[in-house]
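user: can you give me the structure for this one chain? tokens are fine.
assistant: on it. calling the predictor now.
[tool input]
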Amino acid sequence: MKSMFPDHIDLTAKVMDFQLQRQNIVSANLANINTPGYKARTLEFEKDLQAALGLSEAGAVARTHPDHFPLAFSGDQTEASVARSLTPRVIQGVDNVDLDAEMAAMAKNNLFYNTLATIMQKNFSGMKQLIADGGK
């Protein structure tokens, strides 16, 4: 079925969902910074997303023939995986949550999410303008 929304909106929405999950995990890591035995977690989805989009590690589109177009994005084929740090602690009672690293991850994630939200907002304002101009 034909949609009035561009194809990349589904992709942007899925990435925003992953960014939200990552932000929640970073927040949980920070909340448990003083919890003995807590292992920091991360959310990795970039490689799976590249595979779902048919991109290589370098980010270039992987094509078998120059006339082929890349496959359309399917959000159902993309998942995020939570990874726990499994490095053993050497000093008893010291957690493995690095405050600076977690704050940097939170800031980076926030920038990505806000950028994606701006892209979505511009798409919808463009559609709104098209609808308004179409009525004239």
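assistant: here you go. The beta strands are 41-44, 81-84. Residues 98-131 form one domain.
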